[in-house]
């Protein structure tokens, strides 16, 4: 019997690949070049699963993931929260005071901004597609250092210049996506409100009346015209499923101009 394959943003060693291995320890990883390709793979292959980062406790939601959830016909089927710790790694022989460029994913650089400003005020910050891309670029140049997961440094023959360089305690929430829906105690939805006074309060009253707790609510521009917003909500569904959950979602849908169920997990 073949092993399950999980699509992730690669190459191997990214935070997403590490999270995927913790979520599906017996699976093989299919490393893809972009988050968009992970979503495309899952949508086009029935039963396929992908893992992507959704939000970070310091930097907030990952905009591309929210956009892809809106655009692709996939469901969230699982979530995993992982503490994120960064280190400064470089080619063996590198000296921290001689580093000219600091490379990493923009979210990683942002989470270590204060440390980098104090320790390396003259180094140039360079955003790349993933922390692993940063490791690949740093391994051949002593003037470059990567902000990355220190446990992957040895896989690239790099040395650790410093550890725990993040400015504050940080967690990242990862989600597994599939073209097939699942069931669980939490549900996620996206919607756009009707253009009328009290529309948001009217919709939120549905949750209040059913004594349902919201665990997240976020608004983002709808990318249509100024003043149009989409709302992303996670809520504890009290283990509703089947017709009971469908009735609740129908009540919410009736109060929106656009509605999408992202799934239960």
Report on this structure.
By secondary structure, the protein is an alpha/beta fold. The chain folds into three domains: 5-83 and 171-178, D-Maltodextrin-Binding Protein, domain 2; 87-162, Periplasmic binding protein-like II (D-Maltodextrin-Binding Protein, domain 2); 186-264, Alpha-Beta Plaits (2-Layer Sandwich). It is 27% helix and 35% strand. The protein has helices at residues 15-23, 35-44, 63-71, 106-111, 113-119, 131-138, 199-209, 243-253, and strands spanning 5-9, 28-32, 49-56, 60-61, 75-83, 87-91, 101-104, 124-127, 144-148, 158-162, 171-178, 186-193, 214-221, 229-236, 256-264. Strands 1, 2, 3, 4, 5 and 11 form a six-stranded mixed β-sheet that branches. Strands 8-7-9-6-10 form a five-stranded mixed β-sheet. Strands 13-14-12-15 form a four-stranded antiparallel β-sheet, covered by helices on one side. α1 (15-23) links the parallel β1 (5-9) and β2. The radius of gyration is 21 Å and the shape is elongated. 32% of the residues are buried. The model has no long low-confidence stretch (mean pLDDT 91).
Write the SSE topology.
Layout: E1 5-9, H1 15-23, E2 28-32, H2 35-44, E3 49-56, E4 60-61, H3 63-71, E5 75-83, E6 87-91, E7 101-104, H4 106-111, H5 113-119, E8 124-127, H6 131-138, E9 144-148, E10 158-162, E11 171-178, E12 186-193, H7 199-209, E13 214-221, E14 229-236, H8 243-253, E15 256-264
Parallel strand pairs: 1-2, 1-3, 7-8, 7-9
Antiparallel strand pairs: 3-4, 3-11, 5-11, 6-9, 6-10, 12-14, 12-15, 13-14
């Amino acid at each position: 019997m073949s092993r399950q394959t999980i699509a992730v943003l690669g190459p191997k060693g990214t935070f997403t690949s590490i999270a995927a291995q913790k979520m599906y320890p017996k699976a093989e990883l299919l490393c893809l070049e972009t988050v968009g390709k992970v979503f495309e793979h899952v949508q086009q292959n029935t039963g396929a699963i992908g893992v992507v980062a959704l939000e970070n406790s310091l930097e907030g939601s990952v905009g591309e993931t929210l956009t892809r959830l809106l655009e692709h016909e996939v469901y969230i089927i699982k979530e995993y929260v992982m503490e994120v710790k960064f280190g400064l790694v470089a080619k063996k022989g590198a000296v921290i005071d001689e580093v000219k460029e600091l490379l990493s994913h923009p979210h990683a650089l942002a989470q270590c901004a204060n440390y980098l400003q104090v320790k390396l005020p003259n180094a140039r910050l360079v955003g790349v597609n993933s922390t692993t891309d940063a490791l690949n670029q740093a391994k051949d140049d002593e003037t470059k250092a990567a902000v990355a997961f220190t446990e992957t440094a040895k896989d690239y023959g790099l040395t650790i210049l410093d550890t725990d360089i993040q400015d504050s305690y940080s967690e990242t929430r990862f989600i597994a996506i599939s073209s097939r829906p699942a069931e669980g105690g939490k549900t996620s939805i996206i919607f756009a409100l009707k253009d009328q006074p009290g529309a948001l309060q009217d919709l939120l009253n549905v949750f209040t009346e059913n004594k349902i707790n919201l665990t997240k609510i976020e608004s983002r521009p709808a990318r249509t015209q100024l003043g149009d917003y989409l709302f992303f909500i996670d809520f504890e569904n009290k283990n509703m499923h089947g017709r009971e959950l469908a009735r609740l979602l129908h009540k919410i849908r009736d109060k929106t101009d656009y509605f999408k169920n992202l799934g239960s997990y």
